[in-house]
Amino acid sequence: MFSGSLYSGELSELRKLFEEIKARGYKIIGPRLEDGVIRLGELEGFDEIPYGIGDVQKPGYYRVRVNGGRFRSPLDSPKRILYPPELTLFRLTGDWGLERPEYEFEATALFGIKPCDLAAIRIMDRVQGELGDEYFLKMREKLLIVVENCVEPSENCFCATMG
């Protein structure tokens, strides 16, 4: 359904990639430090990415720390962007008819998500197929994904908990 390519490079090249995506009019969502927590949020500039700041995640425990030059997974996942917690799917009219909202999406880039998040999105792609939820399919058409490899999974991560 959706495909991509692999790229490897230096931090300066990653900055150029970010700036090119921004120049093409994409809204960029990536990891950022908000209220002492690394979360996914809209990024206006590359320097908002908490490079060199990581976290320690364990069951019932979360702390931000300096980690010497790596990005870290946000506490949340892209799921809240792909499937917002509150979303109108349809409305019933007075005569029991159905009204479906028209969904409009701007081009959006998920920048710096982890491979496990991409794997989850690919599963959602397969589940949705071509006949899936209109919201998801329209949003997915406008979504660019840039994945950053994970070199230090937390104790809460799926890959760490499942071996």
Structural overview:
The protein has 163 residues and is an alpha/beta fold. The chain has one domain. It contains 5 helices and 8 strands; from the N terminus they run H-E-E-E-E-H-E-E-E-H-H-E-H. It has helices at residues 11-23, 79-82, 115-128, 134-141, 158-161; strands spanning 27-34, 37-43, 53-58, 61-66, 91-92, 98-99, 108-113, 143-147. Strands 2-1-7-8 form a 4-stranded mixed sheet. It has a two-stranded antiparallel sheet with strand order 3-4. A two-stranded antiparallel sheet has the order 5-6. The longest helix is centred in the last third of the chain and has 14 residues, at 115-128.
* Domain unit count: 1
Distance between the termini: 29 Å
* Mean pLDDT over all positions: 84
Strand content: 25-35%
User: Main beta sheet, described?
Assistant: 4 strands, mixed
Number of strands: 8
Task: Provide a short characterization of the protein structure.
26% of the residues lie in helices and 26% in strands. It contains 5 helices and 8 strands; from the N terminus they run H-E-E-E-E-H-E-E-E-H-H-E-H. The strands form 3 sheets. A 4-stranded mixed β-sheet has the order 2-1-7-8. It has a two-stranded antiparallel sheet with strand order 3-4.
